[in-house]
Structure formats: C-alpha cells, structure tokens
Amino acid sequence: MHHTLVALLEDRPGVLNRVTNLFRRRAFNIESLTVGRTSEPGVSRMTLVIDSDQASAERVTAYLYKLVNVIEVEDLGVVPAVSRDLALVKVAVTGHDRAALMRVVDETRAHVVDTGEQTITLEVAGEPGHVDSVIARLEPLGIIEMVRTGQVAMRRGDTALSAAQYT
Amino acid sequence: MPRTGAQIIWECLVHQGVNTVFGYPGGAILPAYDAMLDYPIRHVLVRHEQGATHMADAYARASGGVGVAIATSGPGATNMVTGIATAMMDSSPLVCITGQVASKLIGYDAFQETDISGITLPITKHNYLVTRVEDIMPSIKEAFHLAKSGRPGPVLVDITKDAQQATIDWEWDPSPVKLRGYRPRMRASRDDLARAIALIRESKRPVILAGQGVIQSGAMDELRTFAEMVDVPVALTLLGLGGFPASHPLNLGMMGMHGEAWVNTAIQEADLLLAFGMRFDDRVTGNLATYAQQAKKIHVEIDPSEVNKNVKVDVPIIGDLRETLRELLDLLEPMDRESWNTYIRSMKGETAVRDIQRLPDNGHLYAAHVINDIWRITGGNALVVTDVGQHQMWEAQYYHHESPRSLITSGGLGTMGFAVPAAIGAKMARPEAEVWAIVGDGGFQMTQCELTTAAQEGIKIHIAIINNGYLGMVRQWQEFFYERRYAATPLRSPDFVKVAEAHGLTGFRVDRRSDVIDVVQRARASEGSVLIDFRVEQEDAVYPMVPAGADLHAMIRRPEPSVLVETATDPN
User: Fold this and answer.
1) Mean pLDDT computed over every residue of chain B
2) Angle of helix B321-331 versus helix B190-202 axis, rounded to 10
3) Would you call A70 and B181 a contact, using CB atoms and an 8 Å cutoff?
4) What mean pLDDT is predicted for residues B167-192?
5) How confident is the model at residue B572 (pLDDT cuts 50, 70, 90)?
6) B565, pLDDT greater than 70
7) What local confidence, expressed as pLDDT, does residue B150 receive?
8) Averaged pLDDT for residues A109-113
9) N or C, where is chain A less crowded by C-beta within 10 Å?
10) What CA–CA distance (Å, rounded) separates B465 from B507?
C-alpha cells in the first residue's frame, strides 16, 4: 500500500542525507521522494511515498520528528489531498504507426515536448494514477527512455502546512 | 572580546558547567588543547578514545549531568564510535567534540580526515560539522541542550582546525536554545490520563514495568508513591535497577531474559501492564506473539517513536514520566490488591534466591556468591559498574540496588570493555562514592589499558574480575544451544595480579569462598585502585534463562541436582 507523507525541513547541508539515512537504517522502502523550496525562506518541503501500512507510516512519522532538522510532518494518507507526478517519456516512432502515438497524446492530455528523427518525447503530468495509465498505453509503442519526478502533494482545503508557527 | 575558536570551545563548556572532560589530543584538535590550559577544566588523559566515551557516558549516568569526550580527527574520532553507539542505545547524555581537518581540505582525503559526522549519523541524537568560528557557540549550546533534554542521547560536534584557529569578537549568548524542529512533548493529554485511570481502577492483576526513564526523569519518589497508592508490584528493566528500592515489599526485581521466574510469570499473568520509561526491548519481552496476552498496556514514554514499536499499547501517554506520575497521583485514590500481591509473594517465596541457596557452599567459588558477598560488605551502597555478560546478569540478580544511579551498565548495545573506563568516569563524577567495576575476564582485557588512566588520575576504584576462563555468556549459549561446542570461547588471560601491579594498582587473587570477605575488606582498605581476580567456577550458567525469541514464561531453570562440573582450584 502506498502512503504519502509531507515534511517541512530546515534547508541546511546534510538534511536530506539524515532523512534518507533514517529510511535505510529502519528498513523502510521509499517509492518516491521529492524535495523542493517552499514560500518560506530556509524551509524546504519533502513529499515522500512509502510502501507501507498505516502503522508503519505512523512509525516513520515519529522517526522523522526525531530528526532535529524536521520541523513538521503531515500524513496525507489520512486527509484529502491533491498529488501530482510528471513524466518525460521518449517513444520510438519507427516501426509502428505514428498516428497511434498521436492518438494517445490527444486522448490523454500528454504534450509533445521534443521530436527527433526516430523519437518523440512526451510530457505527462497529473495524478500519479493518470501518469501510470498513460505510460501503460505508451509501453506497447516502445518506450526507450523515461523519467518521473515522483509525487508532490498538498492537503485539500484551507488548512496550510507551515513552519511559521515555530520560528 | 577577541576569542579564538579554540577558546570559544572552552568558554562554552565552562558556561555549561563542565569541569571534567575525557580525551586524547592529536593534530586537528591541537588548537583546542592549547587553549585548554587557560580554563578551569580537569582533563583526563585516556589510553584509547573508546575509553573517553565510556568514561564520559558513565560520568553522565553517575552525575545526572552531561559527559564530555574529546578526540582528534580520523582515528581519534572513529575510535569513539563504539562509545557513542553505547550512549545512543542507553539514552545517555554525551557530548563528543572532535577536531576535523581544515575546511579547505575536507573532501580531499587529507591526513587523518574522516567523515565522522557521516559515520555517526545513525548513532547520535544529532551531530554538527562546524567549519566557521561563528558557528562554534551555537553548535555547542545546541549540543548540550539536545543531549540532556527530551530523551537524552549523544551529540557530536566536529570542528575544523581553521575554525578553532580563527579569531572573532565574541561574547557568551545567554539566551536559551530554540530549535524549531525539536519540541519534546513534556505533558500528557487529559484524555490519555483519564483512560489510564480507568484501566488502573478496573485492573485486578497489574504490574508496573519501570525502566531507565524513571531515573532520567527523577521520578523515583513519584514511582514509589504511585506503586504504594495503587498497590501494584514493580518489575524493573536492567537499566531501571535502582529506580525502585530493591528492599521494597512491592519490588519484583529484574524482568526478562534473566529475570526471576516470579517476575516473568507475574507479567505473563497480568491483566494490566504499566510501562514507565521503558521500551519493550526484545530482552525484556521474549516472543512478542505470546507476551502478556491478557494484559492491557499503558505506556508512559518521552519518545513517541517508542510507542507501538514493539508492543501495541492501549493507552500511549507521551510525556515526562515524573510529571505524568504526579498528574496521575492527583487523580487516583488508594487501592488494595491483596490477593494479587499475596499470589506473587507465594511464587516468590518458593523460588526467591533459590539459585544462590542451591549452589554448593563447598569452598569453591561461584560468581553469585562473590557478587552477593560484595553486596553485603558494601552494605548495598556501592556505585557498581558492570561489563557485559554473565557477571552482568549475576550482578543484576545478586547485588540489590536501593537507589538510582547506583548501577551503570551497557544495556542496549551490550558493549564489552565498558566497565573499566566507565568505573573511572563514574568515580570522577562522584568522588565520594565507593565504585566497584564488576567485569568478566574477556571484557576486562578489551579496555584494560585504562588501568593506567586510573593510576595517573590518582583515583580509587575497585575492580572485581569474575574470571571463569571463558567468554562465559557465549559459552553458556554454546552449552544450551550449540551442543557444548565451545568455539573460540576458552580464554587465556594474563596474570591479572601482575597486570594490576604493572599498572600501579594493588592486585589480589581469590579462589575459594572463605577468602572473599577478607580480601574484599583488604581491597577496600587499600590505598589507590585495586583489582581482585576471582577465579570462579568455569562452567556455571546464569539461571533462569528465557532463550532468545522464546516465550517469556518458557524459562530454562537451574538443573537439579546440579550438573555443574566444578573446576575451580580445589581449596585443599
């Protein structure tokens, strides 16, 4: 089962290493991990997807809080949330009907971001499940390179996750 | 005022109330050592940096303060790893300061460069790599704050040589440390307390499981008042010993792998466990699937990551134990559980000190007798430090601790070699205490170099080597679980009396029961540190024993009649 956690981190050298070390040390499997800036200076935000049940997610949350540079953790497995993933997919255009590929593009809100002599590169963005399904449709056409960003996620509604209350 | 980074280190330590540090100099920490001479600090020169960490760890455990260890970069720092991991597993407040190569050399594999902050990441509560002189004070202030607050633990501050050498205009910042990502929760919620009270009132067969959290939160009086108020017996973890008086009628003694039968039976038959500042370690629970199946569980714990980790609990209470017990006491009324306590007393009566009574008193030397005699002679008032193995369990069974911080031992990590340096650190913290190191012949040889440290410092510690010629606990496992195939456990030792004398201590040897009391008294009366080589039965075993992973009630009991083959020198 996939479980999504969001953590606010102090933006300092070595903090990401502390977080990933925790997962290695406690033998949790990371499905995806993204880190980026927030609107607050000195605060970065991590979205973490782990393959675990609710009890393990609670353990991970408790261990994350033990890290001194982790300011706040939110379990998006228990509240409504939006999440987005983005993939770049390079597909071969030789050896099959180019129109078949363009049909997938038309029907799935994928974008062509680059064309080569023998390949087309698509951008696919959306809910992780949507990205999965587009990739599944592209596979028979011959994917020759792919990268996914991993999920970013945010709680729905007016509640905001912020480090401001602790500064 | 202008201060070098090296001076700032000592200024900060003095402001933190530090007057004793344990360390070993070297190239990258040389500026700090040079500055040290101008500050009111007692520096204990160790013989190996592992010793410095064990000494500082024990200094902290004996005093209730923070222990400080210092080393240079590279091998100096890596030698600290075992001691840091020991402090981490036992939640001991330790601050380690290491020198690091100059910041411009970091990453270039310079002489004696090692990534000690990376190496110690999983075995410290937090650590710092300081490359700028401006960051020294905040890092050291934070290190002390983190080491001693919440769930205590070791913090390492690695400071580059150029940061030590640089000069800035500096003054002490007395403002309290504020860390936005570190907010230990100290007070339990009202709801949790109410749910706990309801379970305590309903329970017919409750047992308190008290751990080191009792000692670290200073909750001994509260625990005692609580146990008496609700009339609940108290079982202790190894690190909890001393947190509840051994002589108290409600005391059950140590639980777990080598706990007495009545303790583990009471836990298995309980309908409520009150876990206070302990973490349901595997040595305490045995097989989790059959552990205290009928019992509801209340867990009072400062570290949220320990709750529901090993044992699923009904009422988790996150907070400081002492505060929590005070709040519970305000909400509780006196109770009576006569039938449950009578039942436990009847179990205890039939087996109490059974093992020690059944050891033949034929002049041969048994470790249990030695430890029990030391307990009697010292009136139970010694500060005992143990190593790891059979002697450690016998100490826990036969030295009865009445007060907190009277037993210092490596519990979680099980670090052999801990006792001798830890005894030195404990003595430094409590010069008035009678300090005894009880140590096996194996563990003693791991850190015996620190005998000279004791001699150089002119302190008096008592070292009792429980010498059975084997790595005894491993031999016991080989006896029970590996068909007595004694692979690599027979152990040749040097002449320990001569070792003692060579290091400037007084040495004694005892190989029969009738000499124990006399020699222990002579050792206590001697000037300076003393060592007694107790030549005990070689193939004695610690009973009872719950095999690793077995059900807590499935204990191996002392065979009867004893199958022990006596090996000690014949007294005649």
Assistant:
1) 95
2) 60
3) yes
4) 93
5) very low
6) no
7) 96
8) 94
9) N
10) 11
Distance CA(B92)–CA(B344), nearest Å, equals 34
CATH number, domain of B419, equals: 3.40.50.970
Which of B117, B141, B121, B179 lies closest to A68 in space, CA to CA? B179
Q: Is the pLDDT of residue B353 over 70?
A: no
**Hey, are the CB atoms on B180 and A66 less than 8 Å from each other?**
no
Angstrom distance (rounded) from CA B321 to CA B215? 10
Residue of B125, B305, B310, B312 to mutate for A, most A C-beta atoms under 10 A: B305
**In this structure, is residue B64 part of a structural domain?**
yes
**Does domain A82-148 match CATH 3.30.70.1150?**
yes
Indicate if the pLDDT at residue B563 is higher than 80.
no
Distance from the Cα of A97 to chain B's closest Cα (Å) equals 53
* pLDDT band per the 50, 70, 90 thresholds, residue B255: very high
Return d(Cα B40, Cα B42) in angstroms, integer: 7
Under an 8 A CB cutoff, do A62 and B307 touch?
yes
Residue B260: give the domain boundaries: 190-349
**Of the candidates B118, B180, B305, which has its C-beta nearest A66's C-beta?**
B305
Q: Among B557, B548, B90, B554, which residue's Cα sits nearest to residue B284?
A: B548
Does any domain span residue B414? yes
Counting Cα atoms < 13 Å in the Cβ hemisphere of B43 gives 18
Question: Which residue is closest to B121 within chain A, CA to CA?
Answer: A18
What CATH number labels A2-79?
A: 3.30.70.260
If pLDDT is split at 50, 70 and 90, which confidence band does B456 have?
Answer: very high
List active site positions of B.
49, 111-112, 161, 473
Cis-peptide, bond into residue B561, ω within 30° of zero: yes
What gap in Å lies between CA B164 and CA B215, rounded to an integer? 37
How many H helices and E strands in chain A? 4, 9
Instruction: Indicate left, alpha or beta for B31 from its phi (over 0: left) and psi (-120 to 50: alpha).
Output: alpha
Kindly determine whether residue B305 and residue A17, on different chains, have CB atoms separated by under 8 Å: no
Element spanning B382, H or E: none
Do B514 and B485 lie in one domain? The reply is: yes
Q: Strand, coil or helix: what is B29?
A: helix
pTM of the model: 0.95
Backbone angles phi, psi at B170, to 5 degrees: -130, 145
**Does the pLDDT at position B219 exceed 70?**
yes
CA distance A107 to chain B (A): 46
DSSP 3-state assignment of B331?
helix
B314: pLDDT strictly greater than 90: yes
Residues in chain A: 167
Q: In total, how many domains does chain B have?
A: 3
Would you list the domain boundaries of chain A?
A: 2-79, 82-148
- Record: contact B122-A21, CB cut-off 8 A: yes
Residues 6+ apart with CB under 8 A from A33: A19, A20, A46, A47, A48, A49, A150
Q: B138 CB near a chain A CB, below 8 Å?
A: no
